[in-house]
Each structure stands twice: as structure tokens, then as C-alpha cells.
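Give me the fold.
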Amino acid sequence: MELGDKIKATWEESKTPPPIPHAEFMTLEDFVKEIKVPLEDVLKILKDKGIKIKSTKQIIKNIAKENHISPLEIYQLIAPKESKKTSYGYGKKTIKEISKELKIDVAIAKKKLEKAKGIKVKDDDTIKSIASKLGILPIDVVNIIKENK
């Protein structure tokens, strides 16, 4: 079983979808921006729960490992409680589906990828297949599409 499949299996076992695709690879600072929670609030919550962090630039996965908890447990501590609807699973979606979800014309999304990475894609190409060809994560493909939205 590949590492990605193992990580995915742990999310599935917990019955909780990942909050943001590949959030465990984000810095704490970037993560709190994504979930729209003030950094000061997150730092207080983590401190109150005994979670030690060296820097807000530290990767979520590393914070979790150093504190002997999972990245999901960190999310559950700091996520807004009313925020049950999250988007995830970019890899299996096509560029057409992601474009619609992001409210970006598919032609513009394809041009952004061509300009940024020199790759031509079809409407039915999955984000995972595009990422694989480029040697990057699916979330990185989505972030390229989101740029200058």
C-alpha cells in the first residue's frame, strides 16, 4: 500500500473527511487562513490543549508528530465547529469539474496550467493525472487554477 493510500485510509477509518486536501503538508499559518480562523485564537487553543509549536511556519504534519497526535486531531481542535462542509477529493475530479466548482471558465483554467507549467490538458483529465504528469500534488494544480481568480 502506498503512503498516500495509507493516509487516505486513516481519514476513512475516522469517518471524517480531510478538511483540506493535503492539509498535513501546509504550514499552520496557511492552514488557519484556509479555514478562516484567526491565528491568535488557534495559538491559544493549541497552547491550552498542551500542543507545542515552534513556529507558525511549521508544517501541520510535523506539529502533530512532535505532539504525538494526528493532523486530524489538530484540525478537530481548531476548526470552527459549524464548519462541517469541506471540500476535498480534488484528485478524482476533472479539470472541468474543478473549474465549475471554482467558478472559473474551463478554458481559462487550462490556459493557466499551460502558462504556468507548459502542459496542455483536456476537459476530462483528472487533477490527479495532471499533478502526476507535473510531479506535484493535486492541491498544487488547483492552486495554479485559483491564482488571480
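Residues 3-78 form one domain.
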